[in-house]
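3.2 Worked example (two chains)
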Amino acid sequence: MKEVTLKIPDKKFRFFMELVKQLGIEVAEDMEIPEEHKAIVRERIKNANPEDMIPWEEARKQFKFKK
């Protein structure tokens, strides 16, 4: 299954959602993050060493992207 992310201007959002509804497209509006997942992230943040962190721009350069 493919996933698509769209940025809709605030003033067009109601129109867009009505169009989606008319077309019968399924929308996951309110995704709940399980408390267990939140606890894992909080623990990782608590144990993180700021000296090990690098800016995203620098980290991105270390990735190898498929073409």
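3.2.1 Second chain
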Amino acid sequence: MTSYCPRCGARFREELAMEMARTSFRCDDCGLAVADPPAMLAPTSPEEEVEYDLGQWESSERASATTALVEADIPYRWHPDLVLVVPAVAEEEVDLLLDELGEVDELAEDDGDADGGADAQAAMSDLFVAADRLQHDPTDVGLVADVLEAALTVDACLPPYGIERPVWKRIQSLAATLAADLEEAADEDTVAADARAVREYLRDLV
């Protein structure tokens, strides 16, 4: 039985933990609709695991961390008091991931409530449309130009209203990878895969 939210690590109330066995419900802390939780890291020996105390992190920050872990295909599980457990072999990668998220949060505090406005929203939409088309025709010169322009704008903008900093940073990273492969004239399969990754990530955001 799952006792902790797989996204933010919050402990479920007993009645919610029981409900988990029957249907889906929403985590009180982060709002995740829990129906098909991701596979959790199976218990191993202590020397094969690394623990991170995320008790000072907000639920949205913890959710961003586990989202990044899922994207990086790094298994994890939660322990009491918001302790995140990952395989020791992934320690260096997880250190970098969490440090990166911490830097994003510091930038968010410095910028206050600022966002990228209409320009960022338009660039995100343009990137989605161009990537969606490019995945099917990675040699189209016009589409390549559209992707490069949108990626450049995305890289230079703050996130649009409603998009969290870690999510925006991931969008920037995916866009940068696609743009770099286009500029380096990577093979069609690589460009198509990059475009598909951008399109899939943006699908529910635009």
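3.3 Remarks
The radius of gyration is 19 Å.
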